[in-house]
Design brief:
Elements: H1 2-23, E1 35-39, H2 50-60, H3 66-82, H4 87-95, H5 103-118, H6 124-135, E2 139-147, H7 148-158, E3 163-171, E4 174-180, H8 187-199, E5 209-214, H9 220-225, E6 228-232, H10 236-245, E7 248-250
Parallel strand pairs: 1-2, 1-5, 2-3, 5-6, 6-7
Antiparallel strand pairs: 3-4
């Protein structure tokens, strides 16, 4: 028995080494600790809200009836700012038009939407920040509650390959007007980021530093999850929390 225990005791340093190695943050090819950089989109990288602007664009194009849709769009936007948004009710409203038209027509409208509504509201400083993070070799993603149909071309405009967004359901290549999986909103952002990391073969513990840039108190769950939360032109509740916690506060000019 004693000899057997002695044999196992001799294995403890090896077992401990393996445990520590598994728990340690991974490094890049140069041996530097990986950094995870996450960006909210609306009112963070953009000087406006792409979800809101998409609905307004469809109204202006005569696709949606102004009298009913404009009021509901404003109502949902106010609920979001107040932290009272029912995300599923909003998605029923926001995704419904996608189900009414073929993808080719939607893509044609979106190209015009990018030119008229999105490109004018991209902060130059936001472009520089994203470019710097990419050039430094960090793992970057845009993480947004807005659906991926609206936001995927915007992520490409920033040169960001990874988008974590609310996913609209599709069947046979057409949108159904429903959401697929967990909406990327509030605590759902954490769940969706963790799913994305797992698909990359990674986890939170791989990163010595993780950053998230956001303007909204709706993003407090993910801001509190990362090691370096950054409030960007924050709304009042987020500004208060950032000041209490000593978080970095910035503004894009």
């Amino acid at each position: 028995m004693a000899s057997a225990l002695g044999e196992y005791e001799g294995m403890y340093p090896l077992i401990l080494k393996r445990i520590l190695k598994a728990a340690a943050p991974r490094n890049d090819d140069k041996g530097n600790a990986l950094e995870l950089v996450l960006f909210d989109l609306d009112n963070t990288l953009l000087n406006g809200d792409s979800d809101y602007e998409w609905a307004q664009f469809l109204i202006e194009q005569g696709v949606l009836e102004r009298a009913s849709y404009e009021h509901r769009n404003e109502e949902f936007f106010e609920q979001y700012k107040a932290g009272r948004l029912d995300i599923y009710a909003f998605l029923d409203f926001q995704l419904a038009p996608l189900a009414q038209y073929p993808r080719a027509q939607l893509d044609s409208w979106h190209a015009l939407f990018m030119a008229k509504k999105i490109l004018p509201i991209i902060f130059d400083a936001a472009r520089r920040l994203v470019n710097r993070s990419l050039q430094e070799g960090h793992l970057c993603a845009i993480v947004t509650a807005t659906n991926s149909f609206v936001t995927a071309p915007i992520a490409r405009e920033f040169g960001v390959a990874h988008l974590v967004a609310t996913e609209p359901e599709q069947i046979d290549g057409r949108f159904t007007g429903k959401v697929s999986g967990t909406p990327c909103f509030r605590e759902g952002k954490i769940a969706r980021v963790e799913q994305w990391l797992a698909a990359q073969g990674r986890r939170w513990g791989d990163f010595a530093v993780s950053r998230f840039y956001s303007d909204s108190h709706n993003d407090l769950p993910l801001l509190e999850k990362v090691t370096h939360p950054v409030a960007v032109r924050p709304d009042h509740p987020l500004r208060q929390r950032a000041l209490e916690r000593g978080w970095e506060v910035i503004a894009f000019d």
